[in-house]
Fold each of these.
Amino acid sequence: MLLQGNEACARAAVDAGCRFYAGYPITPSSEIAERMAELLPPRGGVAVQMEDEIASLGAVLGASLAGRKAMTATSGPGFSLMQEHVGYAASTEIPCVVVDVMRAGPSTGLPTSPAQGDVMQARWGTHGDHPIVALAPASVAEVYELTVRAFNLAERYRTPVVLLWDEVIGHVRERVMLPDPASLALVERARPSEAPGAWRPYAANGQAVPAMADFGSGHRWHVTGLAHDERGYPTQDPAVVARLQARLHAKLARDRADVVLWEGVALDDAEVVVVAFGVSARAARRAVGLARRRGARVGLFRPRTLWPFPDREIADLAGRARALVVAEMNMGQIVGEVERAAAGRTPVTGRFRADGQPLAPEDVLDALAGAGVRGLA
Amino acid sequence: MTPAAELDYRQYLRTDMMPHILCPGCGHGIVLKAILRAVHRLGLPRDRLVFVSGIGCSSRIVGYVDFCTLHTTHGRPLTFATGLKLARPELHVVVVTGDGDGLAIGGNHLIHAARRNIGLTCLLLNNATYGMTGGQGAPTTPEGARTATAPDGEVEPAFDACRLVAGAGGTFVARGMTAAPVGLDDLIARALVHPGFAFVEILSDCPEYFGRYNALGHGPEMLEAQRRNVLSVDALLAEKRFVPGLATARGGVQPAVALGVLHEARRPEFSAALAAARAAAPPAERPAAPPATPVVAPAGVPAAPAPAEAPQCRVRLAGAGGQGIVLAGLLLAEAAVAAGRNATHAQAYGPESRGGASRAEVIVSDGEIDYPCVDRADLLLALSQEAYDRYAGEVRPGALVLVDADRVVPRPAEGVACHALPLGATATRVLGEALGANLVALGALVALSDVVTREALERAVAARRPGDSAERALLAVRAGFELVAAGRR
């Protein structure tokens, strides 16, 4: 069937067990809200339009505490408003999925045009330190796959998971074969096995992620965005706070392979490697195909997970490739991460485009030529 | 029900979280005890009761009670509470907020919760100041009162929280005060059993800041001052032998207030209204659950570039918003997919729903489509001069360009086959309106190019537009076929 990216997200969310959606209309994400409003009520779920994006993520967190898998979707300006609640979810470890269909910014920018300018907002948009997961699909089929994955990661690690794609991926329709929902491997958050009195809400008990009780289920507990101890009570004890911070960071680092996803195209003998995600990776993929057919030894590294960033893989490529070329639709965001991972072992150049237009294969070919790849003309 | 006098409050408290953070003379502890008396008296199931609060002194009191308690972000407790209530309507969700939390930073959420009439109990503890941050001015600070940020006296008028919530649609609105604690638990109990958005403003005191800055004395003096500012009480409080003060006889920093239940109405609670709307929706309007999908693994992007590229036909359809450009593109892509080929459809548009520029890009191939946007087109349809001028130069050598002869004056271009046909006029002739020009154009484009077969296009049109509407759409598409055939004859 021919399916739109945003529609695939809604279908995947429902198939992944999402039963609560709260959102606020914003281009180019609104199709997700519209599809959720159709899909959820017949399945016993709730879709609600809130008064703003702050309220939307607040409602999602409330519903998640009540035991529902929950999601919201927005675009850059709304994602900015949600940041305080992203941080709250990270601190209190409430699972949630936040979709940001990126449009050109800053500010209101170009509401109907694609961009990839929210990569750093996804990582550093909140105050304080916390890890985050951000996934970046590059096709409609992958929107489906990674939306399911986002719910699984949110539940397994009790973390907010951000789904980032650009307006092109959100609105493009592609031919996809969706899996039978019954065949999906779905993850549910661990619920406490202890009796209510014996349970300590934030005691990990040797696991990286503590079990979580639904509000109203009989386990009474306190949730706060203040630094908290294993009972969930506010604390200013430096040792307890340091332990909480360390655990919050360790829980994602522990199962890196489960979280850090990527794809390589023609990397084995590649002398110059393009690093790109989302629709930019589609342009890069075409450019790499054209260049290969002209005899150039080039490849594509495509992060499917942007956060945590696949730095080890980039470091490995930097040891083998003659140059890395980063192509992204912003003024240079993941290029800094690539430079950090490459650590000077190979030159890193960037091809940036932030004019509201998708990166074109010609842009990537031009960047490859700039990196010394011959015979592309 | 257990008489309040017998209540041992400790059974509801997290004593291991004590000592609490409230200052001596603060009124919020009086409110906490009134809440617990009301809960106890009603015998609400303890595990079904959830307390949600924001940020501020008042919001801290929920931490000390042994229920499910949620201490959220500044101003946002009603948003979390809305999610909790919609997810589990059987829960009693009580929001404890302050005047800054609920009326300044969270004021938008308050009016919308009231408008929705969602079944929450919202207790707003009004001490007329920001206590936790040091006594700054609040939206409830009375005019003339001194605060840390208004040393010469507040010049902004204060909100009347109860009138605000009643005006926004709240269905239970009451005001109590810490100086009348016995009546206070009655008001809270009434709010807890109200089926809808129940709001109680509770006048409390901050002797540490508001009292000190305005020379109002300590806790006892401020409580006494509360009583003096009461204009009237309702029957419920009168029964508790609460006597109104002398508000009309004196000025002072606190405005005169009425106490008791100030507004009551009945209309459907939000989650119940949602359920009722769903039950009442006629089956035809109720979107069906999507049918079971074929059991196939998600089609990913293949890992290695193909040794040779499968031929692609890149089609750009351009015109003005409202001309049906996006629909024409969709029909073309659906026709290709239904015929077993691969296709993508991308759209570009301005902020206008009608007018402005509109563009659809369709790629048809028998192989992988790596890049889903059209950089330069093999087929270009332009239904407006602006679209033609914008895109005529972005075509490949050997491209085919189709324009509406009545709207577009094409320029001669080498290596490009340009066809100017009366697309709009034909739509008007066949359908009686120019609105079907997109379908005539689609028919002509297919007839000129064979990007998909005519049969595939007709099937796609018929599938998308059932009944009479399909008949009319097919008329337009076939008129497009005929335009091309007539030109060739």
Note: The domain at 7-274 of chain B is CATH 3.40.50.970 (Rossmann fold).
Amino acid sequence: MGNNYKKLTTIAILVTGLSLGIHPAIAAGGGGSSGSGMPSASGSAPAINFDPATEYRAGIDSLQAGKFRDAERSFAKVLSVLPKDANTNHLMGLAKKGRGKTKASRRYFEKAIKYKPDFVDAHKELGRAYALTGKPEKAQEELTWFENKLSECAQTCAQADALTQGSAAVTRAMAGEDNQEKKSGALALPTQQGDNAYLKAIRLINEKRYDEALLDLEKAARIIGPHPDILNYQGFGNRKLGRFNIAKRYYMTALRLNPDHLGANEYLGELYIETGELKKAKRQLAKIGRLCTFACAEEEELKRWLLASAQ
Amino acid sequence: MAVIACKQQAQRDPDPQGLAELRWLTLDADALKALGTAPTECLVNPDDKHTAALILIGRTAFASPLLLGGQAAKSGMSCQTCHSNGHSNKNFFLDGLSDAPGTADVTSSIFSTSRGDGVFNPKPIPSLSDKNAHTRTRDPASPELADFLHGLIEEEFAGFEPEPLIFDSVLSYLRALDNTACDSPIPVRPQSLERALERMDSATRAIEYAMLLDNQTQSTQFLLAAAQVQIGRISARYNKPVHARIRRDLASASENLRVLRENIPDAHADRALQKWREEWTGIQKRLRAQEHASLFDLSQLQNYLQDEP
């Protein structure tokens, strides 16, 4: 029933309250070095004049349609501004593989794993690619990774099924039985599932179940692409778990995509308060004040945080 | 207060952000009716001036997202969003919160940090003006309504505890809502510029009342912010390039309220507000002169809705 009534994506309503679109002519925002398992703006970031999430989805559509060159173009565009986005690197690897460039695909799967070490699908694809390109010892390393992870998770963790399937896929490839299927898990998921995962993550965050929320946000990010709303909540979840550096990098990446993002500006200010950087927090408040022409809740909340920190 | 005059320059043109009310509509809703008209607000006339003042303040708070907290406030929701002029908003729909227009799950963790029951169980949004539908007594002697309102703001919407003046005023407003104060059936009226300006006038009078009461600093600041929100709603209806100047004027008027807010407590705040009202009178004239080309005009609104992606 919900689908029939859907007007805007929930993501647009619940966080930005304004629009899903990315700020049109964005100057280079805050940089930030690479982080584990997250996209990050590079130090000398160029201006972004397109919506990376839209381009990401276009790439997925092309991939699904078997238009691998088009997919490559889309993912290359996203990577030109977010080179450390693990999900886009993974999909770029799939596009390369779709074009028969399995050897070239390895580099992207390797990057995906570098930026997100526990990226199961990337490990699977990398293991397969190694096996198919005459690197059995490297494929074995990936298989060992799966075995270790399965052992750690004792078949009960949330990723148990994915790990089992990944392990089996690498094993088949090593035995020369790879069926060359080209779709990843994310490709089979429509945007609605990204919205649902995002909505579930918001519920979990409000219930203070941050670890679980981060898993759903990751799922949403894989389907929807690099979006400031998702990045902002990934920052929030990590911040609540005390991972301030990782949280800050998520906020910075969100602000790179949209420097005027009210939520990311507010939460970054709150992070600065938590890390004792009050001057920076006040700068965030001043920035939000400039953005909120007609008053807004983000400004009021950050003001309360600052007042509380002074008491 | 010289700051106010200085702030009237160099305002950037605030881009029109679209009509916030569209966020809560379904694709198959009659958007023209939903955005172009509203049921009449049915308020019982109070017996004394103090109660009248509280109702005015409560009315302003009721329409301000800042009364609520968390995601609801950040997405621009206010009590008014679900209870249009105190009635049920039959068009309200939010994916994940509603299963049909006019329903909402008030025990969802989407907005609440403490009331989530893990079950998707939306209920019809009740009218607050229909005495027959009241499940809680409006009797001021009973704490029932106050307890409910505290729970709603602080638990259901994860908001901060409102200032006592604001809270008591919302209670007064809720108690004054009564369908018997209107003709039956409840008349539906255009959401015209005059109605929006009347709300703005109501907000500024609410600010004056709050200023009159001692030690109500934060209440006054809250109401000033609520008035800024109302200016934003007017600005959103002047969405064309030709309206750039009037949008700048509105942004400037809002900015001046912000300055006033930040300067409170200020012994001269009443004079500053008076000065602001004079400025606002001029802006109202320009708003009226361009109303025909704004989204307060039904034909303009219809065109806008047809073009809206």
Note: The radius of gyration of chain A is 20 Å.
